[in-house]
Amino acid sequence: MGHDWSIARRLFLANALVIIALTVFVGTAAIVDARDRGFEEAKNRMLSVATSIADSPLVLGAARSNDPSGILQPYALRVSEDAGLDFITIMAPDRTRWTHPTASEIGRPYIGTVGPALAGEPFTEVTTGTLGPSVRAIVPITDETGEVLGLVAAGVKTSNLSIALSARLPAVLAVALILLGAGTIAAWFLGRYLSRVTLGWGPEQLAQLFVYYDSVLHSVREGLVLVDLSGEVVLYNDQAARLLGVPPRSPALPSSGPGGRASAAASLSLDRLDLPPGLGALLRSGRAAVDEIHLTDTRVLVVTQQPALLPAVGRTQPAPMGWVATIRDHTDLQHLGSELQSMTTLSDALRAQTHEHANRLHTIVSLMELGRGDEALDFATRDLELSQRLTDDMIDSVDEPVLSALLMGKFAQASELGVLLTVEANGSLSDSGLSAQDLVTVVGNLVDNALDAAAGGDAPRAVHLNVSATADDVAIEVADSGPGVAPEAVTDILQRGYSTKEPGTFGRGLGLALVRQTVKRLGGHLTITRRVGAVFTVTLPRQQVPALAAVTDPAPAEPTEAEHA
Known about the structure:
By secondary structure, the protein is α+β, with helices and mostly antiparallel strands. It has three domains: 7-164, 2-Layer Sandwich (Beta-Lactamase), CATH 3.30.450.20; 203-328, Beta-Lactamase (2-Layer Sandwich); 333-564, Heat Shock Protein 90. The chain has 16 helices and 15 strands. The protein has helices at residues 7-54, 57-64, 68-83, 115-118, 158-197, 203-219, 238-244, 277-285, 331-369, 373-397, 401-417, 436-455, 490-496, 511-521, 547-552, 561-564, and strands at 87-91, 123-129, 132-142, 148-157, 223-228, 232-236, 268-269, 289-295, 300-310, 319-329, 420-426, 462-469, 473-480, 525-530, 534-541. The strands form three sheets. Strands 7-6-5-10-9-8 form a six-stranded antiparallel β-sheet. A five-stranded mixed β-sheet has the order 11-12-13-15-14, with helices on one face. Helix 2 (57-64) packs antiparallel against helix 3 and helix 9 (331-369) runs antiparallel to helix 10.
């Protein structure tokens, strides 16, 4: 059998061989059974005929006469012809034949067994006589007292039985051919079905392809989830298990090493997987999606989902068999995005400050050229006092240096956008246990969204930030004068991120997604209400500060993966 043969061809050949063998076996069994039944029927018929002859008064009277052959020979020949027998031999108890189809055999001894008949018991046997092998019955001729006066042997040659059996062979062969034809047609249809579902590939090719695909699934850095039409997860690789936080699948092959390769051995219900609501709904729906943002407790995932189609083999168009979702991890990009956003904010602040300082410097130079040095000095002093007062106020109100630096840049950004940014702080953030990275993620993204919303609204444009630290939690409220958030968009904001920026804008849709992720990871909650514009309120519980950190104040450690999230 060639290695390039498809499963369908191999199954067809194997099935055909099995059907042929079964047909030969059934045919042989039928012939043997017909032969045995033919012999049994012949024995019963011979026994019936011989018994009837032995009970005939003619035969009984002839056995007592002086010339039995003269009376019985014509009678035996007539009965043999009428009954379709090959011979009827009537004999004396000493085996001397009184009748025989061959006249020369009359008077000679009978060849065969007579013991049971002499004992008064009829019997049948298959033996060879003067006419050849035959099936015969031997019955005793007895008088009223039970004395055996003679014996009757009636038989038919086995060759005649074989001829009769041969007449049944066409029917047996017809049944065998019908069985062979039906089995072949069934094998052909089954072969076509297997050829369609296996795409005409052989088992070695399928096994090799499976190994290749399994290796690819194991090596790719993107998560992959395959869902069938009933909503069952039939395959996901180890990267998908890591990103979704679900148990890894068992190895797909017995020879697979450690690492949890993808397995299609058993399906898994989506309801049994602890998935975020939005992502679970996407996988259950099967709808097409491109680069949708979904959040887990610690990760920002970008999901693309497309239907899985069975190739159009024998059909006008491909048939759907489920859908495939690819999952990319943007958590690692979050830290870089945050840093880039911070750099962008600082760059915008420096650009705005450069523009303002250039105007002020030109004013001072012009005053000095006009000989008004005192006025130039007074203008410069008042400008320095204003900048210093803003810095002092910020440092006094927000005791977290990193957050203060962020807000200083936001003030400059707000000034350039024509938005009035005000900050109100109550309580101390230094002992809240919240990391600077988390505070920057929450405050920075909320203020950025508020500035964008206010800048696109009607005058007066304003953003107000209120940071309040209590003994139990830290509340951050950001209110803007923009158009607010539509009630039907609140769910999207909390589940998948939201953006009013133009498509293609860097960071589009990630700001609020990162805020929600951080709030959920820290055990807080986020609410969206409306006053003039939108009001975002974040409440974060205080985090426990390690005792060692409070005493030794070591250098800040590298941010963990959760902090990057």
